[in-house]
Amino acid sequence: MSSNNTPSGCPMNKKAQDSRNETIYNNSLKNASNKSCPIVHSGDALSPDNQMPHLSQEQVPGQRIYLPTERVVSSIPKAKSSEYWEYPSPQQFYSALVRKGWETPEESIETMVDIHNFLNEKAWNEILKWEKMKTCNCNGPKLLRFRGRPQDLSPKARILQWSSKIFPSLGTPLPFDRHDWTIDRCGREVRYVIDYYSAPDEGDNPVFYLDVRPALDSVDSVVDRIKVATKETFAQFRERVKAARQETEGDRS
Question: The pTM is what?
Answer without folding.
Answer: 0.75
